[in-house]
Amino acid sequence: MDRILFGDNQFFGVNHMSEEKARAQSMRFQDTAAVIEVLEDAYAEGIRTFMCTTHERISEVCDHFRANRDKYPDFKFYPCMPYAHKYANAAAELGVLGAVRSFLPAENAFGALLKGGMSLARKDIEGLASLLIDAEMKMFAGLTTPIVFLQNVATDFLLGLGFDEALRIFADCVRAQYGAEPGFITMNAPALVARLDKVGIKDPIICTNINKIGFRMSGGMDAYESLIASGRCRLIAMSVFASGALPPEEALQYVCSRPQIKSIVFGASSRRNIAQTSRLIRQLTAA
Amino acid sequence: MGLSHHSIVNAHPDIELRAVCDTSGYVLDILAKYTGVKTYTDYKKLLAEEELDCVFVATPSRYHVEIVTAALERGLHVFCEKPFGLDPRDGYRLAELAERKGLVNQIGYHYRFVAAFNEAKRLLDRKLIGELHHIRAEAYGPVVLRPKGSTWRSQKSEGGGCLFDYACHAIDLVNYLVGRPQAVSGTVLNSVFSNDVDDEIYATFHFSRGLKGQLATNWSDETFRKMSVKLSIWGTHGRINVDRQEAQVYLRTLAEPFEDFKQGWNVRYTTDLTKPVWFYVRGEEYSAQIDHFVQCIKEGATTLSTFRTASDTTLVAAMMRADAAKPYTAVDPIAAQSPPSESDEPKPRRRTLFGRLLSAEET
Predict the structure, then answer these.
(1) What is the pLDDT of residue A112?
(2) CA-based nearest distance B103→chain A, Å
(3) Domain A4-286 of CATH type 3.20.20.100
(4) In this complex, do A160 and B30 lie within 8 Å of one another by their Cβ atoms?
């Protein structure tokens, strides 16, 4: 994993601080060309990994990088699935099973199985999961995707249910179908890592909020600190600026002073910010 | 909602989840097999067979009353999803029953657990922006975006529609922040895409002490990524704009020093205001409301969102539905051009249909 990963919240109107900023961002990035421009800036600043949701608009970004592979030979994607709002909106309209069905290819056997009541054997659940993962991964065909993440809303939902087997199934599918490493985004890292351990997922890749003020670090700062110190997982820190609540230097100082944290993911919309943040990370990491 | 509550409830350290009831056999079978939870398809059987302290009800709205009644009669504390029934009389009856039996009762109006709205409430209760004269409540989001849909949300008889499903959140927040309106007028229930239900709602609220309000909700608006509720409140000393992310406070005057507030704009962000939760799935407020319910049971306290306050919200929604059926005031160019009458005595009105409509409007 690279030290610096580039995130995509800023492209899709996600801003935890302000609805107005979020709207301004969705206006600015409504053309995918504007997204690609920022990614090119990131590439020019030495960033090689784009960690992105499986939002339908990412498929246009993928098209661009597929078509220009010689320009960015070492550019990698870390897909994060599912794009939850897509499922949530479909579930509100079609019900839970209807939503699942609507994302499966029309000709597959599971549509019929869902209607008729399918078996509960692990292989069937696995089959269903693998079809859903395929549907999400389709846009990345031909691109490098060394790690595939389960989004926090899915990870944490399954964690709460105690459906640990589903986490295992996700990991197995990603390894078997894409030769990729599974990763888990979570807001409850201490609880998740303990549970993954129980289903035999050792040294997992965990992407989670790590910031000085403990913003969305559920389980508490102490539990996070001991998880970080334990080295039981490969950590990617997200929300290091706590959505802008922390000044950059202070925020990065906190994360970079914990060598167990492998990577930092951040999003930015201007070359200046990308340059500034990556320079700070490199400086503080070297220090 | 049911599955999401299930996940949060199951993760609560003080709750032992005994059983779950649903009509979807397939989902139940998966849960039973992979999480070990006991399952039922008949809630009456569940209530009869299990030893319980409390229940969480997250069915389509039309079943709330029946299930909550059964749970209360069984002596259980009840958390129920919003809205609370579709007829306020049912809600008040159940509020009374729960109060009489000393049972903790809560409705899932989760915006009452959003830190920024609580900050606004704290400042309003302190009269920081003086005497209030206007409140605007807005709720927008992407739920119904095309003429389609076959779930209960698209059926009026099931409690679907923007009014009970969406607008209720905004109404409840208005009630929470400034108190329940005394009257409603000018209600518009409009369909954009739905056949059977309303997709957008507009209304005027009238409160005591001269405060007026407006409500605007529309669930056919995909310019918002997810449901977004915003309140703007004007007072003699300033203004508050508040949504999930931030509370913006403008102070025209600051009568006496208060914390670090200054004249002009003051902004408080969710990152500073939000208290951490023990387990996070989809927003702190969803976890916080469940924890609040548990703590109220442990302490025998009254919840922040009771059957009674939720019934007040249903009452306002029901009054809006009634108000929407009333005629509007016609914009009549001919009437406007006719010369003013010589006497101030009102002329007897011809009882045409139009005349009847007008007099109905005046009453």
Answers:
(1) 55
(2) 27
(3) yes
(4) no
